[in-house]
């Protein structure tokens, strides 16, 4: 009873309103769905305890009201169960996506009823924040990667350095190495206290080396003379005329003739030496550079004199800048190989001695200076300033001396003249022999193109244009053809000249029978060449432009290298065709390297559309050679020309420069094919052999030219060929020493020929007009041969050719012509000079010089007129 009394009393009625608790089975999450909390009413309908997954609310503050909403935008509803607080969800069991989206829209509109414009802005800000966060995270990741890579690299370097250090320590721990180290440590003290060479010793070395180089350069200008066995020459004469005797005379004339040309060359080289010393501030390094460079210069100068009778000039360095140094080396003759090898040995000794003295001399800097601490002390300041000033002043003095040496009235020219300097720069070889190759070279560093003729002005050039326009109109009245109706082929045949013209040489057979026959049936004659042994580009320049080297300044040696590269729009005769046909009007063929004499650059300036060479973008197709010759044969070159003619769209001007007969003349051909000549007994064997090989090459040219003209006759297009040899090869050593033969060494052959399809076929101008000529007249002669109309410029050349048949810069003792004057020929081949000319000749020559000056150095007033145009 007691137990019953203490037990609680359960009354069903009292708890009738309390819901019964039924344990629900756990529902899988995959079967449920989420429904958004649509509004505050739905949220309040459920007690917080009824939602076990419900989280805390988030407070949003707005201007209109404060609303508290849940962070969760949806709650999970089991598909199988029901919740008493969500009767509509329980009844449906699931909520469609459309209903969810609708509820979200309602909730959004009720939560922010007063801010329709700020919501997009908040979204933009949120997107920007997320983008910034992502960018920062990317940069952070990249930074961590870079740091990690740096650490890995540093670790690898540290490992490698440790390995090297360990290996070095192991190496130095060897007993033998330790002994060596101890030896050098003991020797370092005395080595550090080694003497500094005195400036007096430097001066002695400077004087001896500079003097030796002057003598070496001068020695390369001479060659041993030969004597006729029939003439008895005493020993004293032989000694004085020997190379040693001539060099001795060059030096001793300071005391014997009061001509200090040795001193002039010494000063020129000495200024170069000093500039190297002050620029490098290392005496022995400068000595090494100077000795090596001047020795190499002397070797090259000697070889060029031997082959071309011309010294090294500044313009020759364009070959090196153009990448042709290797090609130039291929011209070294066999008999100079030993000389080159000996020179290389000398250079090696110079380098070795200079490096040894550089190590033994504790005075590293010629002038004390400190670039690291230039102003740390008064000594450093003065030394650094002096070193810089010395370098600048030495270079300025050298440049001033060189650029003024060839200009009359300048300080260096006047000083050199007092020492006996008499320039003859129009003949550089003679100038170098008389004045020294160093002085000749420096005199040509600044080459004035041409002296300004008297009366040059715009009005004067306009008057000349009108004058020769009238002459052209008069000439054209009787001419019926046009130059541009025919293809003109101008062929410069390398070293082509009749070898039988020189005395004391006879052949078993005629080397050029075919060309000799052609010359007898067409316009032909003898050309006066300014070159001997070289100068191809000069003769070519005259033929293409109509200008003469005789009118230029003496220091203008090679226009292709000194003048044309600086001109903006130089005139050449191929432009007659390009003015009518455009780019297809002219092309050029040269079966060698295109940068020789800067032809690739100069031809572009002249207006040639293409240059076909061995190394051009479109190279020559035919490159066959004869025997062991290194040069493309003339027959191959002619075949390239024929291919161009067959493929041409219109008549053209074709410029052709052959290479087959270029020096040197070694044993290229089969022994049975070599022509045999008879020479006087005192002709050296080397000269005799070279003459035979050269003449054999002419025999091949002779046959190839005949075949070429025969094939042109088969082409039904009017074609005219202008064929000429540029100069004789420099192999006639005996004739060079005979003044009576000097004029013959400047005579070559030319002809102008037209094929059967041309109106001028079989035309031969009278010998009174064609017997003598120079290459500057070839285009005007070709126009006369073709009966073609001409420009005022060609009219001037036509009239000038009638009065002065040949003009050239030639030294000859014939006819009273001395050094320093141009050579002019009369119609009978006799020599005249400007002082003995007629009034008409003088006026024509004066007009010619004005025209040439206007084109090369003047204002080019004639360009504004029709002076170069053909009607």
Number of strands: 17
The pLDDT mean sits at: 83
Q: Report helical residue fraction.
A: 40-55%
End-to-end distance? 154 Å
What does this 3D model show about the protein?
- The protein has 31 helices and 17 strands.
- By secondary structure, the protein is α/β, with parallel strands linked by helices.
- The strands form five sheets. An eight-stranded mixed sheet has the order 9-8-10-5-12-13-7-14, sandwiched between helices. A three-stranded antiparallel sheet has the order 15-16-17, with no helix packed on it.
- The radius of gyration is 48 Å and the shape is globular.
- The model is unreliable at 1-18, 29-35, 37-98, 104-117 and 812-820 (pLDDT under 50).
Write the layout of secondary structure elements.
Elements (H helix, E strand, L loop, with lengths): L1 H5 L26 E3 L4 H6 L11 E5 L4 E5 L4 E3 L9 H6 L4 H15 L6 H55 L2 H18 L6 H21 L15 H7 L1 H14 L4 H20 L2 H26 L8 H5 L3 H5 L7 H24 L17 H28 L5 H8 L9 H8 L1 H7 L14 H19 L10 E7 L11 E3 L5 H9 L1 E6 L7 H10 L13 H4 L12 H7 L4 E4 L9 H8 L4 E2 L21 H14 L5 E5 L19 E3 L5 H29 L5 E7 L7 H4 L10 E8 L12 H4 L1 E2 L4 H9 L5 H12 L2 E3 L14 E3 L5 E2 L6 H18 L15
Parallel strand pairs: 5-10, 5-12, 7-14, 8-9, 8-10
Antiparallel strand pairs: 1-4, 2-3, 6-11, 7-13, 12-13, 15-16, 16-17
